[in-house]
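During the reporting period the student researcher (J.K.) took over the structure-prediction task from the postdoctoral fellow and processed the backlog of single-chain submissions. One of the processed entries is reproduced below for the supervisory committee.
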Amino acid sequence: IMGITAYNKIYCWIGKGANTLYVRGTDLAGNKGTADMITVTYQEKKAEGKPGIIPGFETIILIAMLGVCAILLRKRKALK
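J.K. obtained the following structure tokens:
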């Protein structure tokens, strides 16, 4: 944007329900104005589908099964 030498950010948290956001500015001469506004609605994301037992637990089971297979293969070779 032409003519802007500095800007400030104001952070806020959006609460549940409808929220209105404004874009406001002050020029070097001290003139103030609101450029635009937007209304947003915050909704919590709902979980979809059936959750797993424990996140990442499937990986542990897979590694354990591979370990069991390796042990069984060693025992099979030792019996020959």
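The committee noted the following: The first helix runs from residue 57 to 79.
J.K. will present the remaining backlog at the next meeting.
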